């Protein structure tokens, strides 16, 4: 399973908040770490939402915003901290699409080459007669 899929399946925003030092109350509310907050205004469960500043997202978004890092770095941090295994050898959909485009271009070039060779051979045959 790919990195982002594995992390989203295994870790919740609540898990991330607890793991990185925040203590939700019984209602799963915390003081928002993204703005000055004196009273709990952020709900953390599978996803998070702050009723004060409107910040929202999943565990990856939470960690990225909490540490000021990119989404990929946040996903890797969560996967490392939570011991989530993922397959980093599979090509992404972007890489698959590029591979397919290259393959179709190569195929088209080979077909054009065969057609040119046929035309050349037929023109030589006409000249020889």
Oligomer: single chain
Largest sheet: 4 strands, antiparallel
Secondary structural class:
alpha+beta
The backbone outline, from C-alpha atoms, is: rod-shaped
- Which value, in Å, is the CA radius of gyration? 27 Å
What's the overall average pLDDT, rounded?
Answer: 88
> Helix share of residues?
55-70%
Low-confidence stretches: none
Could you give the order of strands across the largest sheet?
1-2-3-4
Tally of helical runs: 5
The total of beta strands comes to: 4
Give a short summary of the structure.
The chain is of the alpha+beta class and 129 residues long.
Overall description:
The protein has helices spanning 3-10, 13-19, 59-67, 71-81, 93-128, and strands at residues 29-30, 42-44, 48-50, 56-57. The chain has a 4-stranded antiparallel beta sheet with strand order 1-2-3-4. β3 and β4 form a beta hairpin. The protein has 129 residues and is an alpha+beta fold. The termini are far apart. α2 (13-19) packs parallel to α3 and α3 (59-67) crosses α4 (71-81). The protein has 5 helices and 4 strands.
């Amino acid at each position: 399973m790919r990195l982002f899929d594995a992390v989203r399946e295994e870790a919740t925003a609540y898990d991330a908040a607890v793991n990185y030092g925040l203590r939700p109350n019984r209602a799963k509310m915390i003081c928002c770490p993204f703005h000055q907050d004196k009273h709990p205004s952020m709900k953390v469960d599978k996803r998070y939402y702050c009723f004060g500043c409107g910040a929202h997202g999943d565990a990856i978004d939470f960690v990225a915003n909490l540490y000021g890092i990119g989404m990929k770095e946040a996903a890797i941090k969560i996967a490392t901290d939570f011991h989530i295994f993922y397959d980093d050898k599979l090509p992404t959909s972007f890489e698959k699409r590029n591979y397919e485009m290259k393959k179709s271009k190569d195929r088209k070039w080979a077909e054009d080459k065969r057609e040119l060779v046929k035309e050349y051979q037929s023109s030589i045959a006409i000249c020889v007669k």
